[in-house]
Sequence to fold (248 residues):
Amino acid sequence: VVHAKIARTGSASMYFPVDSPVLAPVRPEHTPFAPLAGAVSELRERGGRLVVLGHASPTGSDTHNDALSLARARTVASWLRRDEAQWVDTVTEHGSPADTQRWLRHWSRTLGWDTNPGRVDGVIDAATERAVTTFQREFAQRFDASISVDGRITRTTLAALFAVCMREFETHLRAASIDPESEIELAEEDVLGCGTSFAKEEGLVRCFGDLPGQQQRCDVVVVPPTCRWTREHGPPALFLYTRQDIVP
Fold:
């Protein structure tokens, strides 16, 4: 289940579908861009910097989970940076057709586009091809863009998905009184894949619970100027600071 919340300390936690590196809403009110805009608004008010922490559940190998958690952090960072190339690269390497299906279903509900692929199962069947074709046609018309209308999930189609996601993000930024054209600074060293490390920290398990689904998330943390945290302290120390106001 994809949902999100903003903690009073300035941390936005967003949950991913199983084994997916791409946030996507299961219901219109659970769009990931609301908490992201909230984190940016908090940053504008408090100062400091953003840190993005991707996580994975304990299921599967450490190698897979390390890669998945970093991919989750990078896709979220790509939205914040408006970095289409990195988002497409990450989704191409780690994603599946189910990620596209989730967004097409979302836009069928929120934009009224005839892009509902039916089941979200990662299978490219006739219904998914029809939904992708309709999306490509809508994108070409509404964005005045050149794109092949062929029903295929290519890098060009993923770039179009990113563009529509960015349009939605900009809407939430405006609602938070933030200029959507303003730069959101995010250093590469502050985009971290945490693997399953949080699932092994007793204090953090108490915060989130020990169910695997609680570790399928990405945290966007607003680090205030008074916090002396650096990457060397480790992500668990940073998150405990945002929860308890303890300087590492």
About this structure: Residues 155-175 form the longest helix (21 residues). The mean pLDDT is 86. The two ends are 32 Å apart (CA to CA).
